[in-house]
Amino acid sequence: MNNILEIRGLRKKFYQLDALAGVDLDVREGEILGLIGPNGSGKTTLLDCITGIQRPTAGEVRFMGQRITGMKPHTIYRLGIGRTFQLVQLFPEMTVLDNMLMGIQESKGTLLTRLFRRDETDDINKALGLLEFLNIIHLKDELAKNLSYGQQKLLDIGMVLMSDPKLIMLDEPLAGVNPTLGKEIAAHIAELNRQGCTFLIVEHNMRVVMNLCHRVAVLDHGKKIAEGTPEEIQNNEQVLTAYFGG
Amino acid sequence: MMAVHVGRKWTVRRVLRWAFFLAVVGCIPIILGESSYHMYVATLICIYIITIMGLNLTVGYTGQISLAHAAFMGLGAYAVALTMLNGYSFWLGLLLGVLMTFGAGLLVGLPSLRVKHHYLALVTLGFGTAIYLLLCNEDEITGGFSGLTGIPRPSIFGLPISSDIAYYYLVAGFLVMLTIISLWILNSRWGRAFKAIRENETRAEMVGVNPLAYKLLAFAIGAAYAGIAGGLMAQLMKFIDPTSFPPEESFWFLLMLIIGGSGRFEGAFIGPVILTILQESLRGIQQLFFVFFAAIALLLIIFWPSGLAGLLDIFFQKVLKRPPPRLTK
After folding, report:
1. A66-67 and A58-63 beta bridge pairing
2. Which residue of A lies nearest to B190 if distances are taken between CA atoms?
3. Is B305 within 8 Å of chain A by CB?
4. What is the spatial distance between Cα B142 and Cα B135, in angstroms, rounded to a whole number?
5. In this complex, which of A94, A101, A115 lies closest to B199 when CB atoms are compared?
6. From CA A43, how far away is CA A47, in angstroms rounded?
7. Are B226 and B97 in contact (CB under 8 A)?
8. Where are the domains of chain B?
9. Nearest to residue B78, comparing CAs of B14, B143, B127?
C-alpha cells in the first residue's frame, strides 16, 4: 500500500519544550489511522505542523511524494489535505450553505475567475448532496452560529468534504457530542472511508478508535511510542504506562 | 436543473428596491429646488456614501480596520486637482487618482497580515498622518497650506458641467455605478471570502483562502472608492488644502459606518445621510456637536452594535412581521 503522508523526524520546539521530539509517521492510502496519546502529548501540534499553521523546527512532511513543510496553510489545503479542529471552527455569521461553499471555492480557478465566473451550480448541488448525507439539509439557509454543537461538528466535516480531499484529518470529531450523534459521525467516517477517503483521526474515545481505525499510533511527550493494529496497541506495555502511569 | 449563480435572482422586491433608490437619487434636485446650498449638501452626502461604501468593504465585510480613509480621499482629490490645473482632463485625473489610491491601499493592506485590531488601526492612522504631512509640506507640488484654488468643473463629451444640479447628477451617476460594482463584488466568491476572513481567519486559511491576496484587495478597493470620492470632492469644493482631509476625518468616517451599520450594505447609506444632515443643521452649536455625537456613538456601540441598519431589522421583524431584506448575501 502506498504512503499518502510521510512524516520524518518532525520536531517542534516551543522555547525549552519539545512539543514534538522527532516524530516519524506514515499514513497509508485508504486507511483510517488513529492518533492517540495523553493530553499534551503533541497530537494537535502534529496536525498544526502538517497543515502549515505551525512551522516545524526540523524534519519534513511529504504528501503524495511532495515536500509540503514550509508551505502556507491555504496551499496545503488546495493540494488535498482537509482538517477539522478540536473546537469547531466555522464562519458563524454566514449561512450553512455559504460555509459549505467556502470549502470548495478557493480550490478552483484563479483569483480573477472567482470574481468573474459566477455560475456555482455544480458546487451548490454538491453542497446540498453532502448536507443531505450529513442530515443537516433542512438547516441550509440557517446561520452557522444558530446550529447546535453537534450540527456544527457535522458542518465542520462537511465543509472539508466539499473539496474532495485525499487526506482528512479530524481533531477529536466526537468530543462534546452526544453518543447517538457520535455513532452517526463514526458511521459517516466509515462510509467515506469505503468510498476511498484516507483519514487521520485524533480521538480520546477508545471504543470508537479501536472499532473504527485500521491502525493506531500513540504519541507521548512528543514522541511516537507505539504503532500498530488496535489489538496490538491495547496490549502494549508502554502505552498502558503512558496512560495509567507505571 | 436551473443554473444557480453566485449573484441573486431578480425578485419583484429587488426591482422595487432599485426603483426606489434610483427615484430618490434622481428626484433630490426636484424636491430640494434650486437652492445651491441644498444641492451642495446633497452632493456632499453622495460623496460620503461612496467613501463609506469603500470603508464598509474593508472594515464591515472583511473585518479589517482603516484609519487612512481621509488620506486616500486626499490623494484622490489632489490627483484630480493637480491634473486639471495642469490643463488635462478630469477623467485622466480621476484615473490617476484611482490608480494611486489603489496602490496606496495595497501598501496599507500589507501590515494587516501581521498586525490586527488596535495595532492595525494605529498603523493605518500613521499612514494617513504621513500622507497628510506630505500634502502639507511638499508645497512645491501641492501648494502646501495655501491649497489649490480654481479647480474647474469637468465636462462630459465636451459638455461642461457648470451648474450645481448638473454636478449633482454627475456625482449621483458615480454613486449608482459604484453601488452596482460594490454589490457585484460583494455577491461574488470574493465577497464570500472577505466575509470568511472577517468571521474566522484561521479557518478561512484552512479552506484555501489566501488571506494576503484578499486583505490587500479589500484595502485597495476600499481605498479606490475613497479616491474617487476625493476626486469628486475636489470638484465640489473647487478649492482644496490639506486640512480638507485631516487624519481625524477618518474617525468621522468610521463613526458614519458604525452608526449606519458596519457590515451591512445599507449601513453605508444610512450613516452618511443622517450624520451629514445633522452636522449641517447643527452647525450652530459648533464644537458641542462632537460631544453630542460621541454620546450617540457610545450609546449605539453599547446597546446597538449593529447600528441603525440593525434597528431597521427590528422594524421589519416586529412591525412588518417578515424577515428583513438582505442586500448582500
Report:
1. antiparallel
2. A115
3. no
4. 6
5. A94
6. 7
7. no
8. 14-319
9. B143
Domains of chain A: residue spans and CATH? 1-80+165-246 (3.40.50.300), 92-162 (no CATH)
| A93, B195 contact by CB (below 8 A) | yes
Q: Tell me the per-residue pLDDT of B84-94, one tens digit each, with 9 for 90 and over.
A: 988 888 999 99
Contact pairs from chain A to chain B, CB under 8 Å: 98
pLDDT at B7: 53
pTM of this prediction?
Answer: 0.91
Cβ–Cβ below 8 Å for A72 and B200: no
B275: nearest Cα among B299, B259, B294 = B259
Query: Quick one: pLDDT at residue B1?
Result: 39
Note whether B225 contacts A: Cβ–Cβ < 8 A.
no
Closest by Cα among A170, A229, A160, A165 to A204: A170
* Rounded Cα gap, residues A22 and A26, in angstroms: 13
Specify which residues A12 forms β-bridges with: A20
Query: How far is Cα A202 from Cα A240, in angstroms, rounded to an integer?
Result: 18
Q: Which residues of A touch B213 (CB under 8 A)?
A: 111
For residue A21, the cross-strand partners are A11
Residues of A in contact with B192 (CB under 8 A): 94, 98, 101-102, 105
Cα first-last separation, chain A: 36
Would you call B326 an interface residue with chain A, using a CB distance cutoff of 8 Å?
no
Mean pLDDT for B13-35 is: 87
